[in-house]
Amino acid sequence: MSAPTTFHGWVCHGKDAPMKWEEMKIRAEDDYCVDMDVTDCGLCGTDIHTMDANWVSPRYPLCGHEIASICTRVDSKVQNVKVGDRIGVGTQSGSCHRAECPACSTGNENLCPIQLFFTYNSVWPNGDEAYGGYADKWRGDCRFVFKIPDILSNEIACIVFCAGVATYAPLKRHNVNADSVVGVMGLGGLGHYGILWAKAMGAKVFTMSHNDRKHDVALELGADDYIGTNAAEHLTKYTGKFSHILCTGISPDFKWKTYTPLFKPNGVFINVNLPEWNFPEISPMLLVASQVNICGSAIGSPIEIEDMLQFAAKTVLKPYLPTYPMKEAPQAVADFNAGKPRFRFVLKDLLFVCVLSKYKAGGLSPI
Ligand SMILES: NC(=O)c1ccc[n+]([C@@H]2O[C@H](COP(=O)([O-])OP(=O)(O)OC[C@H]3O[C@@H](n4cnc5c(N)ncnc54)[C@H](OP(=O)(O)O)[C@@H]3O)[C@@H](O)[C@H]2O)c1
Ligand SMILES: [Zn+2]
Ligand SMILES: [Zn+2]
């Protein structure tokens, strides 16, 4: 099959500019390239931050980074996936791979200090732009592309490549287990996976949300209890309760002194949230006296993603993922901005979903 030179995707030309479906140049192949036809792409909080230029000035146009797909073509050095496989890619799609890199040489490619490439809003080493998954096709490096386990549908799998691993990896790294009591702050796309993973790891899980309308769905998701964070007095009765708090969302008036008393001795506050504002300062006295470990976590390494996929294949994951046809991406973004997701929107290419279901039923070759 000859390699395509263009693809079609939803692009954003600037904050508040209408998204447009356009034909664009696909990056040139190299020995490690995988081509995929996108079936599903999640709509992540990071997409909104990026489109709205909340962090730094982004490289417009942009489009999506939680991709599940069917593999349509592989280049000569690709061994981990083959044509016809269901495959996915998340936020990261490249790193330096140098032997002298302290991150890449130790399986921590997500922390590579030399060269990080992302699925969109990034430039490949050959100078071509990286575009994302609100699109019909994507091409990228097989070292950041993963085969989806049979038990996971593409609809569920697309989200695990970003929101999934961003919450799974730190919970696993910080040894969440049946003795843990985990607070998950912020019940959006990441928070809802945080609850699912922490429960599957055996922990007791409390949802901490500023939106009391989420009370019932938090319990439906499997949380053991719900804590409204709007009023600090709701929190005091949880003093000394938590071994871990996974922070996926906070309000700008967050105060350390409200939260540090909630930890058991040597508890861990794991931040994965990336708001436009900074955390407040923490006084040395509070840090010393509370002995809380405050840390962050960035997506996940390829090893952590493979580990998560194996874990997910053994777990019955029941996320809530409302879907939109890919052609309605601008409406999905507007609805996300209006706070409507419960909890993650998935954009679906309905033509490919149809092909995929026939393929799975043994009726049709996907290619
Ligand atoms: N570290 C990583 O590797 C990584 C990976 C992907 C995304 N992220 C970042 O993680 C964050 C969450 O992403 P997401 O996709 O889960 O976003 P999301 O679906 O919008 O969820 C974020 C949640 O945070 C809470 N929140 C947001 N703004 C708030 C405010 N002003 N006051 C109080 N609570 C607020 C809300 O939860 P409640 O209503 O329940 O309070 C909201 O549902 C984003 O900043 C994203 O960029 C990080
Ligand atoms: Zn994401
Ligand atoms: Zn590196």
UniProtKB/TrEMBL annotation:
<feature type="domain" description="Alcohol dehydrogenase-like N-terminal">
    <location>
        <begin position="36"/>
        <end position="150"/>
    </location>
</feature>
<dbReference type="InterPro" id="IPR011032">
    <property type="entry name" value="GroES-like_sf"/>
</dbReference>
<dbReference type="InterPro" id="IPR013154">
    <property type="entry name" value="ADH-like_N"/>
</dbReference>
<dbReference type="GO" id="GO:0016616">
    <property type="term" value="F:oxidoreductase activity, acting on the CH-OH group of donors, NAD or NADP as acceptor"/>
</dbReference>
<keyword id="KW-0560">Oxidoreductase</keyword>
<dbReference type="GO" id="GO:0046872">
    <property type="term" value="F:metal ion binding"/>
</dbReference>
<keyword id="KW-0862">Zinc</keyword>
<feature type="domain" description="Alcohol dehydrogenase-like C-terminal">
    <location>
        <begin position="189"/>
        <end position="313"/>
    </location>
</feature>
<dbReference type="InterPro" id="IPR047109">
    <property type="entry name" value="CAD-like"/>
</dbReference>
<dbReference type="Pfam" id="PF08240">
    <property type="entry name" value="ADH_N"/>
</dbReference>
<keyword id="KW-0479">Metal-binding</keyword>
<dbReference type="InterPro" id="IPR036291">
    <property type="entry name" value="NAD(P)-bd_dom_sf"/>
</dbReference>
<protein>
    <recommendedName>
        <fullName>Enoyl reductase (ER) domain-containing protein</fullName>
    </recommendedName>
</protein>
<dbReference type="Pfam" id="PF00107">
    <property type="entry name" value="ADH_zinc_N"/>
</dbReference>
<dbReference type="InterPro" id="IPR013149">
    <property type="entry name" value="ADH-like_C"/>
</dbReference>
